[in-house]
Design brief:
Radius of gyration: 16 Å
Structural class: alpha/beta
Shape: globular
Order of helices and strands: HHEHEHEHEHEHHEEE
Largest sheet: 8 strands, mixed
Length: about 230
């Protein structure tokens, strides 16, 4: 029996945002503005057209639709029913095709091992009780040579100041309570979990965000947000 690796408080928190998930001026504005940089990071490392790609923790489908628009065959998972419903409804507007599923990644791994060319797990690991379990499931789901893409927050004083104090309480770019500093993940911790899952870490890059210019870009600074790419041998 697969144990569901989920915090009901986190699911409820994000589920409450579902109705405004696609509002570029709404509470998920920052995700809209991060999305092009996240997609670009993936597209530089994987040929998306024709690839089978999994989006873990897909929310309302921002990255899922971007991946589909780039030509990928996308399966997307989330455990918030409200978000999956909004994601499916938005397909009626976009005309894209995404297979949205209300399912844990561990459950999918138990039934579909070795079936994806690439997996995206963006802004999700810091919201689950056992991030290493998610990474093990992702490793199982990848084909040999497949790549896993992760974005998360580094556990540094600067990340606390910027991502929590600044973004949530001063600039109001994110809803208050979005993040818990104790759940932020240092790159060394992520690297160890990836290695234990049988994945080789091949890149760590910073993900910078300017809420004033409403723009995000990949850089070398990893002390706040960062992206990582790992490959399955």
């Amino acid at each position: 029996m697969t144990t569901v690796n989920v915090s009901q408080a986190e699911i409820g928190k994000f589920g409450e945002l579902a109705n405004r998930w696609w509002d570029e001026q709404g509470p998920q504005r920052a995700l809209h503005e991060l999305n092009p940089a996240r997609l670009g990071y993936i597209a530089e490392r994987v040929t998306l057209r024709g690839a089978r790609v999994l989006d873990v923790g897909c929310g309302g489908g921002l990255l899922s639709e971007a991946l589909a628009r780039a030509g990928a065959d996308v399966v997307a998972l989330d455990l918030a029913p409200e978000l999956i419903e909004i994601a499916r409804l938005h397909l009626l507007e976009s005309g894209l095709k995404v297979d949205y599923r209300l399912q844990a990644v561990e459950a999918l791994a138990a039934e579909s091992a070795g079936s994806f060319d690439a997996i995206a797990c963006m802004e999700m690991l810091e919201h689950v009780p056992d991030p290493a379990s998610v990474l093990r499931a992702c490793a199982s789901l990848l084909k040999p040579g497949g790549k896993l893409f992760v974005s998360t927050l580094n556990r540094t004083p600067l990340a606390f100041a910027v991502a929590i104090v600044g973004a949530e309480y001063l600039a109001n770019v994110l809803p208050k309570g979005t993040h818990d500093y104790k759940s932020f993940i240092r790159p060394a911790e992520l690297s160890a979990w990836l290695r234990d899952a049988g994945l080789d870490l091949v890149d760590v890059s910073g993900l910078a965000y300017d809420p004033v210019r409403r723009k995000a870009w990949v850089n070398r600074r990893t002390d706040i947000n960062y992206l990582a790419c790992a490959v399955k041998a």
